[in-house]
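Board notes (copied after class):
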Amino acid sequence: MRRNCLRGVRGCVLFVLFGFAQLATAQDAKVAYAKMAPIEQYLMADRSAEVALARTAAPTSISGDAEILVMGRKGFETAVKGKNGFVCIVGRGWSSAADPDYWNPKVRVPMCVNAAAAHSYLLRVTKITELALAGKTLEQVNQAIADALAKKQLPPMEPGAMCYMTGKQGYGGDVAPHWPAHLMFFYSDTDPAIWGANQPGSPVIAVADPLEHLTQFVIEVKKWSDGTDANQGQAAKKSSHH
């Protein structure tokens, strides 16, 4: 089975960018989350807490006026209307973690997409979420997304599509609990070489997935959304898990 590179920083991107993930941990997670947990475990009972966590994905100057979606029993629901075109959510395992954490009910990953990504990339995330909440497996979701793309039921990436993932809160799963603060840029069928990605010394990581017609560019940044130093925060998180 191919490693999936669609959902947030999943599969290939996650293991390339966040090299601290260990194979043994991935294997443990795969065993631990072999099937869907009760749906209540994926939901956050306090909607205001989910709204607050979603906003941490980007600086307040951006997320403060963003639309906020929260997880319902069948998919994302609008909790706060936005004013600036950005949309913030809290991703779950099926959309925002490594494949072994697909069914991990503890995953909570804040992300905030701009208007272009909301019109294109986010539609994939919401579709995946609806399928997962209906009990579809990773393999079934992969096939459903591939079919939807082939039938043009999902659009290509809109020019300028990107998202912020700079919140220090949240949990990325057992494979990679805490990710560095980073930005992501989404393109359809784009050669990573045009950005000089994946080259020695380049700060740009990219993965092109021809099956899903998606190229993701990932750039680590120095500050968390609250303005604090991301390197210090990441070092503290890593040391706390040793």
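Comment from the instructor: The chain has nine helices and eight strands. The chain has one domain: 11-180.
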